[in-house]
Amino acid sequence: MHIKPFSLLLLLQSVSLIQSHTPPSDSPPTPEILQELKAKWGTDYVFSGISTFAHLPHKQCLLDPSINYDIAIIGAPFDTAVSYRPGARFGPRAIRGASARQISMSAFNPAQGINPYLDWAQILDCGDIPISPFDNNLALRQMTEAFSGLLSRPAASNSGLPPRLVTLGGDHSIALAALRALKKVHGEPVSVLHFDAHLDTWPPSRYPSAWKSDQAAFTHGTMFHLASEEGLLLPSVHAGIRTRLSGTDYGDWEHDEEHGWMRIVTDEIDDIGVSGVIEKILGRLRGKRVYLSFDIDVIDPGLAPGTGTPEIGGWTTREVLRIIRGVVKEVEVVGMDMVEVAPAYDGPGEVTALAAAQVVYEVLSGMVKKGPLERVDRVTEAGKAEKVATGKDEL
Ligand SMILES: [Mn+2]
């Protein structure tokens, strides 16, 4: 074939143009190239990146039971069991956003002497549980099944032992699902350390109505009553209580005590101080397996306004953080929730979400510092408790 000199020139020019750019390659990148790319692009600034809690890796743990972790952050964006202001379904994304400055390379906690994100624990952000906003019975089933699924796999660092969950709510009713899952997986009830302005042990009759409905019994003020009735609780502690009571007497408190609860009311901190509050909590819970349930409304609404049922005259954020630090090193935290963060009512500085993110950080620090769970009871498929030995003597 005869090619005219002019055409040949055009052909050569186009080849040269292509070669002046990096052509797409079918061959996989070499480890060196991947390492270079990681060095160049692998580090977020505190304000960049897709929002996960503390920039932790995100994995869709509910979709793949082979994903392992020691501690999973899991969102429960559910708020249709509230008695006053809704909005806590947006809590998980607000808390994740407010946790942005907890980047692993600068997350050493000087008060606890540990960086929870750079130690033995594999901590993942497992995203959110998709929960129905239309049917609370279905929502409770969905949450219970999700928590159970996430707990029914071995922890990354402890073959045979379940991992731990830190749930970002959501309204407080989600704790019932978490306690059901804990009993199922650990084979026994747990104690609850409950930070809250409110009791949340109210029987459903606290909200009287001529219109009867089983679904209406499940609310963010009744879930600990329901948990107690289901045998999910060991002796437990409220911290920061200051709610008004029903009727004309102390009947709510009496009901609370009958269900195994001890109360530390908000004002006690002025009489016994932070250390007195810590000692009072530990007097009942020291060495125990504890589910830490944290309603952000325990903090004064001047410091944490973004919540559904604010009660004035609460603890300061600083006091709460110190109480948390004092307690977590002396109990075995098997899980926690951070609930009732409703960002629609938060201030422009997102102070409520910031407080929530910091409390989670303090609890994570304590959990990681204390080390892996040492011994648990698991329920076999036959429903029989089976002890998992770890070589350590039982206490
Ligand atoms: Mn509350």
Structure description:
With 395 residues, this protein is an alpha/beta fold. It has a single domain (53-206, 216-374), classed as Arginase, Chain A (3-Layer(aba) Sandwich), CATH 3.40.800. It has helices at 5-19, 31-41, 91-98, 136-151, 174-186, 223-229, 251-258, 268-285, 317-328, 351-370, and strands at 71-76, 123-128, 164-169, 191-195, 236-241, 261-265, 289-295, 332-339, 376-379, 385-388. The strands form two sheets. It has an eight-stranded parallel β-sheet with strand order 2-1-3-8-7-4-5-6, sandwiched between helices. Strands 9-10 form a two-stranded antiparallel ribbon. Strand 4, helix 6 and strand 5 form a beta-alpha-beta unit. Helix 5 packs parallel to helix 6 (223-229). Mean pLDDT is 91; it is low at 8-12, 14-18 and 376-395. Manganese (II) ion binds next to loops. Manganese (II) ion (MN) binds next to loops. Belongs to the arginase family. Agmatinase subfamily.
